[in-house]
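tool_call: predict_structure(chain=1)
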Amino acid sequence: MENRYDIAIIGSGPAGLSAAINARIRNKNIILFGYKDLSNKLVKASKINNYLGFYDITGEQLKNNFQKHIEKLNINIINERINEIYSMGDYFSLMVNEKCYEARSIIIATGIEYTKPIKGEDEFLGRGVGYCATCDAPLYRDKTVTVIGYNKEAEEEANYVSELASKLYYIPMYEENYNLRKDIVVIKDKPLEILGDNKVGKLKLKSKEIYTDGVFVLKDSISPAQLVPGLLMEEGHIKVDRSMKTNIKGCFAAGDCVGKPYQYMKAAGEGLIAALSAVTYIDINKIY
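tool_result:
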């Protein structure tokens, strides 16, 4: 299959890049999802003195070294957001809007999810709450929809949904000029709780309530437990063993998402281990 890979890596921070490099060196067909400008947190570091071999280096310089390394190995970053990942037995399906990728093994290196779920978000997931507006928009034809956007990319999805919905509210969680269709109602308010009976009925904001049939929460990333159904978490992190294995066969994790300390060197080391474990998993089980 054209879209089937040996290993899919989700995250382009130090853990994800390290995993990609080491899997590529071992001749595995990989796909790496993340941001082409690499880790946003990395460039904010003014000085880094604890990364072996790179004393007194800035985050920007370290990022540039990362970039040169992956370019030398012809590793491309796919700037697409994974919405859901399903274990299909011998492979995983990775859902990206209306597309689907397949991989024999996956490595989750998404970092820490800093945006806490809105009250009611987990409760109504799949019952009016979603994370991919373009995927589920047809379900809300001629209905009222609310999009809570955490980035500029959310505006594109809101514009698409507004063509099908009878009314669309857009709640931006950032300050910028908004490129939205004229019929979209922009509400600058803080969402507090998603309410309803068997499905979403309304959204409680700090200053008022709005009635809505569906709420799309469009973040930079979603929590690993929401991304991969059945993934075991422990104290807010993905539970792994020393080989970076999770409780799901063929699924590995590395970096900040598996626990403290939140350090670049620790993340890179775990990315290496996760890659080696994924390679071993594929080779031992002869998954080709």
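agent: The first strand starts at residue 4 and ends at 10. Proceeding to next step.
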